[in-house]
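Here comes my example:
=====
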Amino acid sequence: LTDELARALEPSDEPGSIEKGDSAMEWMISPTPLQEFYKQYWEKKPLHIKRENTRYYKEVFSTKGLEKVVREQRVLYGKHMDITSYDGERETHNPVGRVYPAVMWDYFNNGSSIRMINPQYFNNTVWRLCATLQDHFQCMVGANVYLTPPGTQGFAPHWDDVEVFMLQLEGKKHWRLYEPEDKLPRHSSKNLNQDEVGKPILEVDLEAGDMIYMPRGTIHQGNCLEGEHSLHITISAYQLNSWTDLLEKLLPAALAVASQEDQEFREGLPRNYLSCLGAVHSEGESPERSSFLKKLKGLMGKLFDHAPVDAAVDQMGKKLMYDALPPALEVSEKLRTVAGDGEKWNSKKGCVVNRVEIDPDTSIRLIRSTAVRMVQEGDEIKVYYSTENTREYHEAEEQWLEIEADLAPAVDHLISSYPDWCKVEELPVDDLEARMRVVGDLWEKGILMTSEPLEAHYDDP
């Protein structure tokens, strides 16, 4: 890794993952301060950062790294890679089956662009960057890589449903950005025609080391200049992470609570409401219609009083646990988790060694701020977690532990006190055995790390 990226992802004194995420974001948009970015650009307008350092993003990914992935791993057309071209109309040229370098480069030499989907599945540096940024955005972060031959364009003008950070890795690409048709859309667009996009609001050559941020909905198209290829990576966030998405969970739940707790919501509709409302009557005025609308407005106002806001937010957190990339652990971190510590087979001795146990005075904390969400569902308390996800989106089933109500304060304490370390014996549960049990359950799922590697107390000399 470059020194800049390493420092961004590995701040000193082992701070929590939110601080690491903030540092990674600061590195990505430097020299623009975070506060200025969120005040002036986030969800408002594009930001173009021009750097003189062509190697700034060099270690994130490379064309050589792309070929290495294709040569050594099982990359599939359509699932992991698209072969595309655009000459007034977007075309996809995907064969069936596995991608082989010779075939991929033949398409490239004939003017087709290569899009690698979710490179974090194959490449550790991209995984690490995306997983680290998850703790800044507190939502899933993804990526795609685009390799374009000289003098070509691979995609039609379009907009995306995510916040996009385009990092130019190699070469140069000419970009044209246009005013959104609908700002902050919830879904991506179809391929657009040139006569649908109007005049550019930003037209720029993006060179290696440069970056463009685009709010979701920004129409954009890029073409590679003659003479050299272009390689860029898009880091994306905030897909379906809007007030609408929260309200979709909150409003049905609020109505369910209101209808149970407030008789007014269960009262029958007026006998004559069909005769004064509906499309036929929408332009009319009558005392009955006015009375109905006034009553309905009052009920909708009262609905907020019954809204289980925290429960709806927990459902958003639960979704994140299913969507998120697993933590990209440093070697020093892995040695303090179930993934790298604990029992091992010793072939020379022919037995299991390094038998360790967590003690009451062992210091622990969550492995990441986005590693766990405790949710009340009916009479059950479930702890959803992301640590057993794979790098492929939704490859693993939703993961959760059910815990007893008297153990919930321990999990609550670990979540709310993060990133501070806490000794097992300090957890707010009366019985020490219960504290040890809940910590053991969380440890076994990779949710906890210890401040130091556990000592092997029980090995034979």
Notes: The chain has a mean pLDDT of 94. The longest strand covers residues 163-178.
